[in-house]
Design goal:
Layout: H1 11-19, H2 25-34, H3 50-55
């Protein structure tokens, strides 16, 4: 894997990059502002309590 395939905004590595001053909060804010609203694509997920379902 080379540096071109790493997403510097990925939450799994972002804090590391911020700590090492490879990524600034200003860059993160700019990136977040550029993202489009995806709320129309959301779906509600309801988890059933398995113990309750087994007793019925």
């Amino acid at each position: 894997m080379d540096n071109r395939s790493i997403d510097k905004y990925d939450l799994r590595i972002r804090s590391f990059l911020v700590d090492n001053k490879s990524l600034s909060q200003k860059e993160i804010d700019k990136h977040n502002d550029s993202l489009t609203d995806q709320s129309e694509n959301m779906e509600e997920i309801i988890f059933e309590d398995t113990e309750e379902a087994e007793t019925e």
